[in-house]
Amino acid sequence: MSAVRRTRGRTLEFKDVHDGGGPLLAVEDLHTAFRTTRGTVRAVDGVSFELQAGTTLGIVGESGSGKTVLSRSIMGLLPPHDVLRSGTVHFAGHELTAMKPSELRQVWGAELSMIFQDPMTALNPVKRIGKQITESLLLHLDMDKKEAASTAVELLRSVGIPSPEERVRWYPFQLSGGMRQRVMIAIALACAPRLVLADEPTTGLDVTVQAQILDLLGDLQRERHMAVILVTHDLGVVASRADEIIVMYAGRIVERAPADTLFHDTHMPYTKALMESIPRLADPAGTRLTAIPGRPPDLIHPPKGCRFAPRCPYAQTKCLEAEPPLRTAGSPDHLFACWFPLVNGVSTAPAPVAGNGAAATTLPDGPGDTATATAQAASGGTDAAAPGSGDGPTAGGETEAEA
Amino acid sequence: MPDDRELASTHAADQLLGDRFPGMAATDELVVSRQSEALDSDDILLRRPLGILFWLALAWVAVVALAAIFANVLPLHNPNFQNYNAINQGPSFHYLLGTDDLGRDLLSRLVFGARVSLIVGFVSVAIGMAVGGTGGLVSGYLGGAVDGSLNALSFVILAYPAIVAVIAIVAFWGQSLWKITIIIGVGTIPLLFRVVRASSLSFANRDFVIAAKTMGATTPRILFREILPNVVPVALTFGLITVAGVIVIEGSLAFLGLSVKLPTPSWGNLISEGTSNGNISINPLILLWPSLCMFLLLLSINLIGDRLRQRFDIREGLL
Amino acid sequence: MGKYFLRRSIQLVVVAFIISILAFLLVHLLPGDPSVTILGPNDTAQNRAILLKQLGLNKPLWQQYTTWLTAVFHGNLGQSYLNHESVVHILATGFPIDLELIVISQIIAFAVAIPLALFTSRRPNRPVDNVATTGTFGLLALPPFVIAPILVAVFAVGLNWFPATGFVPLTQDPWANLQHMILPSVAITFGSIAVYYRLLRSDLISTLQQDFITMARSKGLSNRRIMWRHAFRPSTFSLLAAAGVNIGGLIAGTFIVEYLFALSGIGFSLVQAVNQRDYLVVQGISLVVALAYVILQFIVDFLFTVVDPRVSRG
Ligand SMILES: Nc1ncnc2c1ncn2[C@@H]1O[C@H](COP(=O)(O)OP(=O)(O)OP(=O)(O)O)[C@@H](O)[C@H]1O
Ligand code: SF4
Ligand SMILES: [Mg+2]
Fold first, then answer.
1. Per the CB < 8 Å rule, is A162 touching B2?
2. If you measure from the C-alpha of residue A200 to the centroid of ligand 3, how many angstroms do you get, rounded to a whole number?
3. What are phi and psi of A56, to 5 degrees?
4. CB of A34 closer than 6 angstroms to any ligand 1 atom
5. Do the Cβ atoms of A175 and B1 come within 8 Å?
6. Which stretch of DSSP H or E encloses residue C132?
7. Nearest CA in chain A to C220
8. Does C79 map to a domain?
9. Which residue among A64, B162, B173, C248 is least enclosed by CB atoms within 10 Å?
10. Which chains are adjacent to chain C, needing at least 3 Cβ pairs under 8 Å?
11. How would residue C186 be classed by pLDDT, with cut points 50, 70 and 90?
12. pLDDT at A171 > cutoff 80
């Protein structure tokens, strides 16, 4: 895409990511909590990371681990009340966390945009899709209505929607799920943002469409030199697509590494458990992650030590007492939070605490969950080698060693 | 490449389209939505305490009800006794709220008038609920052609200016309290039928009902054990709103002298008396007291209804 | 789209037919004898029989119905037994008054309710919202027969700002007309304000929790734009439905203010006719009023398709 003309009403200037040095996005010690009648829910609890321009970061975690809240906290797109946020977010030379709402609105949609999880509910049902695209064009770019209209058509074409001239006049309900997600991508990319936050962009879609949409996003990213944060609960989705991966658990980063490293040298037992639960192509669309026995902890009263300890097969007394810090060992870009990290797929814990692994499988949720877990474990040895589309790094060796 | 003909229709559209007569959306809107998602901020707000206003409202309804019930026993003047030596008096120890232009005690007229409003309000809705509510419960659950025609019929009846029917029947049958109550009660049947039916219908295909069905529960058992408990909150809440509505109708009739026969006091005709013959400028108290009581009663009933609605987590429907 | 309107039109005809039967039956199944009304209670049985025959009231019901319906189709709704005024004439003089009352009161209601709801729904259950919401309960508790006398007492008798009664046609003196119509219109607007506000507010609150609103925020749109362009339209379903029912009810439901302010609208004419057992007038007016009600609901249904394209194209 050629140079973008921004509207004159802007009061903010954004540094060109190429010569500024430094990362495009720097998140430091971000905390987000919700005040509820039951107590304060610490959904994001001290997250820091950096992201270079044009690269892809995968954020992975179970349902409820705080991925959505994290991505919305980065944008500053949180509910207007009963929210506590601290920490800083620097983006393209500006501190987003210090911006007034009116300044944030110049960033949103223009420099930083979001693709939502469910295209069914995230598009306005009573507005033509063309309007939903031109809206941000007219707001952020120096365009007149005609220009915006033809740009919208081009955008729809570029996301692979056939006969876009007609489709601009359609309503979301007239499109299939996959097409809607394409429209959403078109909206998010309309103003050529530097960073796109894609929050589970394919969870509601069936597997073949998932791959199409992700590939499309990847192509557009390369074309436009955007950075992408790809949020998902499925490691298989980010395996081949992300440069770096962050694994979240209970509002915290538990492991962070370049994608290859993460798959080949997993340190966190939780990451490993996630790998073993990568959905197979054969699973029906929208299958939720159920493979790890037990439940994520209560975010109002998180456990004192390692938050994963109640479900960790290697947990030791130390794990229950002190929280492991996010640290490195060996390579400087591989961080993990575990007292007894896995090395070559084998735990460094002195001896598995008797019964904890078993206890984990019989934890709160009763027979249903145990059965699922057992089934997953049984099939894990043979299938785990094929995450997602199959071209990701294999996790099979480790799985077999463990099984 | 996505298929050109990939067209999706949504459930929402199906529901909106649903085979209904115009305007039916109005009451069908009143369906229960229970949201348990933690992400829902309403979750935080809906469980708040009932609040002081609720208890004040309840207290006022209780006071009015007790006064109405014990009107005969209370040490009050005869509401129709005209004391020509005490015309248009202000409040005094003898006449706590003063007297009207015919020297009648305003307090006792007010207390006896309360009877009319309350009896008509609550008893007629009870009648309507017994017939229309039960009918709606069964009809909504069973569905089918009978249900469809009953629903259509109730809609058409609601189009007819009900006040005409009420006035006409009252005029022919007699202006007694109980007759008026029954007539208005019958008048509320189609309305309550529609609301309860819509609610019952919305539960008819829920998982728990289907589960009960597959386990071999009989229809009456499903109706009373599964559907009824879920419909009661809607029925109760809407019933209260209807009580307020009925009190307004009775008041309007009374205002025109078409409710209970004069000189039996009723708040509507007390207000009417306060308005006439220059009473407004000479003795505004005649108008003030019944207006105030009526205002507070309607306010209280509506507040109670709304707090219940919040408690039961029912979306705001339509009166 | 075409199919949608065809189906609706067929329904309209069916409903209209049922309503005509209803309007007819109610009046004719009532006990009581119109000859008593016309001739007084002391006339001879013979005279009564003659009169009933003249009026066609001795024929079987279905014959009376078809005769009446045929006349209706020819634009003849009959005339009053009492003063021989034609029903069409009563409607023609009364309807403009009701229309004006409805238009003024609804403009006030929407002008108050919509901005208020847009404002409070953004911060539900905050002080401002609580005051406004409780306040609307106050409005709801002021039906016309309570508030109208108070308005008269304060603004007409007390302050003498507006005339207490009477009517001046719009065509004759628009300013005087408005002065006469303000108080009665205000008296019937309270309930509308309360209902519209509460429904719109509650729908807006649930709309504002939708993903597409967060999506609109993520585009950088201003709050104002989000409220008006994204949240308002999908939140108007209950409001529209309520407005349809409410306005429909007002067509013949303004009899209290018509009585109090001495306006000769349809509502009070109808009440009077019922009270005087003026059969044909009751029958004719109630038919027209019920039809107007139904047509209004069809208009509302059409508006649904405008508000949400899914309704007609699903
Ligand atoms: N507005 C809110 N009020 C209270 N709690 C909230 C709110 N938003 C999120 N939470 C809580 O924060 C936690 C993290 O939620 P989040 O939606 O970020 O999870 P997620 O990782 O995106 O999960 P999923 O895969 O289901 O999308 C959850 O426990 C959730 O209940
Ligand atoms: S080994 Fe200990 S620190 Fe590491 S994940 Fe398990 S419980 Fe946590
Ligand atoms: Mg999420």
1. yes
2. 7
3. -120, 130
4. yes
5. no
6. helix C127-140
7. A105
8. no
9. B173
10. A, B
11. very high
12. yes
* Residue C131: its H or E element: helix C127-140
- Residue C312 within a domain: no
Angle at CA C112, nearest 5°, toward C107 and C114? Answer: 95
Q: Which residues contact A243 (CB under 8 A, 6 or more apart)?
A: A55, A56, A57, A258, A259
Average of per-residue pLDDT across B112-116: 86
What crossing angle do the helices spanning C279-307 and C266-275 adopt, rounded to 10°? 140
Chains touching chain B through at least 3 C-beta pairs below 8 angstroms are A, C
Distance from CA of C136 to the nearest CA of A (A): 25
Ligand of minimum distance to the alpha carbon of A327: 2
Question: Distance from B210 to chain C by nearest Cα, in Å?
Answer: 27
Please name the residue whose Cα sits nearest to atom 16 of ligand 1: A66
CA of A31 to the centre of ligand 3 (A): 17
Task: Specify the pLDDT at position A384.
Answer: 34
Domain match, C141 and C284 both: yes
Assign domain B53-317 to its CATH architecture.
Orthogonal Bundle (1.10)
The DSSP code sequence of A106-132 is HHBTTTEEEE-S-HHHHS-TTS-HHHH
How many angstroms away from the CA of A76 is the closest CA of chain C? 9
* Predicted pLDDT at C114: 95
Chain A hits for B41, CB-CB cut-off 8 Å, are 79, 82
CB contact under 8 A, C145 and B172: no
Q: What percent of chain A has pLDDT over 90?
A: 31
- Does C14 share its domain with C108? no
Domain boundary among C73, C95, C118: C73
- What CATH number has the domain bearing residue C256? 1.10.3720.10
Q: Which residue has the higher pLDDT, C37 or A352?
A: C37
- Judged by average pLDDT, the poorest of A327-331, A339-343, C1-5 is C1-5
Q: Are residues C267 and C242 in the same domain?
A: yes
Per-residue confidence (pLDDT) for residue A352, from 0 to 100: 56
pLDDT tens across C120-136, in order?
Answer: 988 887 888 888 888 88
CA distance B22 to chain C (A): 5
Question: Which amino acid, residue A300?
Answer: I
Q: Which residues of B touch C144 (CB under 8 A)?
A: 252
Give the total number of structural domains in chain C.
2
* Main-chain phi, psi angles of C273, to 5 degrees: -60, -40
Strand order in the sheet with A244-249: A112-115, A195-199, A227-232, A56-60, A244-249, A252-258, A331-336, A327-329
A174–C221 C-beta distance less than 8 A: no
Is A314 near ligand 2, meaning CB less than 6 Å away? yes
Query: Higher confidence at residue C7 or residue C185?
Result: C185
Specify whether C48 is located in the same domain as C95: no
Residue A346: helix, strand or coil by DSSP? strand
- Do residue C188 and residue C45 come from a single domain? no
**Domain encompassing residue C12:** 2-73
**ipTM score assigned to the predicted complex:** 0.82
Residues C131 and C17 grouped into a single domain: no
Q: How far is the CA of A69 from the centre of ligand 1 (A)?
A: 6
Nearest to A135 among C214, C221, C313 (CB): C221
Show which of C27, C50, C73 is a domain's final residue.
Answer: C73
- Domains belonging to chain A, first-starting first, are 17-242 (3.40.50.300), 252-279+289-402 (no CATH)
Whether C314 maps to a domain, the answer reads no
Asked whether residue C201 falls in the same domain as residue C109, the answer is yes
The predicted-structure confidence for C29-57, as pLDDT tens digits, reads as follows 776 666 776 777 777 778 777 877 777 77
pLDDT at residue number C280: 82
Is the domain of C160 the same as that of C197?
yes
Q: What is the pLDDT of residue B178?
A: 87
Cβ neighbours of B14 in C, within 8 Å: 314
Strand-pairing partners, residue A86, are A31
Token digits for B88? 């248009």
Predicted model pTM? 0.81
In the block, residue with structure tokens 């529960």: B217
In tens, the pLDDT along A298-330 reads 888 888 889 998 888 888 888 898 899 988 887
- Tokens matching residue C282: 């009751």
Q: Which residues of C touch A (CB under 8 A)?
A: 122-123, 210-212, 214-222, 229-230, 233-234, 307-310, 313-314
